[in-house]
Write the structure tokens for this entry.
Amino acid sequence: MVQAVGKRRMKVLFLDEYLPQEMLGIMWLSRAIKDAGHETKALFVPDKDWVAKVKEYNPDVVCYSVTTGMHMYLAEINQRVKVELPHVVSIFGGPHTTFTPEYIETPGIDIICRGEGEQAIVELLDRMAEGRDYSDVQNLWVKDRKTGEIARNPMRPLVQNLDELGHPDRDVIYEAAPIYRDSDRKVFVTQRGCPMNCSFCFHHAWKKKVYNSNNKEYTRKRSVDHIIAEINAVRAKYNLKFVHFVDDIFNLKNSWLEEFCERYPKEVGLPFDVILMANLTTERHIELLRKAGCVYARIAIEAANDHVRNAIFRKNTTRQQLINASQWIVKHGIRLGSLNILGAPGATIEDELDTVRLNVECGVDHPMVSLMQPYPMFDITDTTQQMGYAVSSLDQFPVNFRRSLPVESDQKRQIENLHKLFPLAVRNPWMVKYLPTLIKPRWMYRPYLVLFMLHAEYLVAEQAGIYAHAQGLKGPRYWTWVDFLYRLSTKGVLRVYQVLFKKFQRRFAARARNIEVALQMGDERVVAHMD
């Protein structure tokens, strides 16, 4: 199979597009790579000089993190890289490669990584540096450049002690994109894995179908010592006023939560937000979190209908548990957010409208809603197909799960229209009774989409104001409407730039010719909803 030549320090480039928040996955990989003695750099598109910058860095390896919907676009980016640097080894990782490893058959892709990549990437680079064969590295599928033969390697065990991974290397992202470095809010995660079995989430498939592991092996928590040390290290080096925890269930372990809430206000003292699991939440949890500095908590409602929520989505949560958790959050003065999904197989329009009503009943301040996506290897995909619904091909999947529903049904457009009006109706309950009429016109999809984007951006500005108030920050810059207009004036234009960049990129990737794209990304897209 493939052989590398020469023993030296390997140069790795992470090539990706700008995302709404800094990428923890790249940071963890970069930490492992640097600790092993190799070199990393990141580059984000759109960037008018991206080709020149890739050539100037001249990496040995280029890495891409891929989600379904982005996979074709990044494959085209990689083809352009291959034209300029034929020697480079391309590695694709992330959810899409984990669940659809046959993606390696795409021209230009040399290696795909399935599952966790820290140990695999280090072993690969060490072997390349020593000139040894790397075709049998676990977690990797490796394609021979000459014969096209693919080595399909097994998975290695999950990393059990997350503290041993060190702290994510934020330098690699912040040096490449100051917009992330300068943001007041930064992302942190305290765990990997989830014990729940939700049919629409990657965790059940990752746990059982990829790793064949149990909950104890799969659900791992960093120590309170480790996460507090990371937050303080980031604050000492970078701008940090708000902490955004992205754990799927922050209140997973009572003992951990007790220790965290006891120590965090004394040793950190910054406002933060979390995601909570309603069927695990007690009022005691909310009291602890509020005293620790939590200003915003999200709970996963997903669907109001009991059958959809528990039989189809497998949430194992009662309606009363959702209401109780919401009431406790509101009672203790924490901003309430919700996570919802429309488009479940078998759900009626009335079921979807009831989800809006439940959000209103719960008093949700910041409703977030997605359209159900039947991704590869997810149980919800099997359910959808077994019920006779046609699912779009992977190459037709939307890049953003808040844009369109890749499942065909007679009520598809009504669901997509309701999705766009959902947050506005929750915040303005007088609209609810008009929704059945408002969602019927198919031609209103685009006007509703614009309204959805504007309102979502306003909710983010509103949220930022709450964070600022918790920090005692004052002045016009932190007024909701001022912040909203600022976001609108920057990210709206930048989104247009990004769309144009992709169109031009596809053109020159397909033709493999050198076309300069005069676009420059230089403003904040952090915590963006606009898409």
User: Anything to note?
Assistant: Residues 70 and 377 are 17 Å apart (CA to CA). The chain has 20 helices and 17 strands. Residues 480-511 form the longest helix (32 residues).
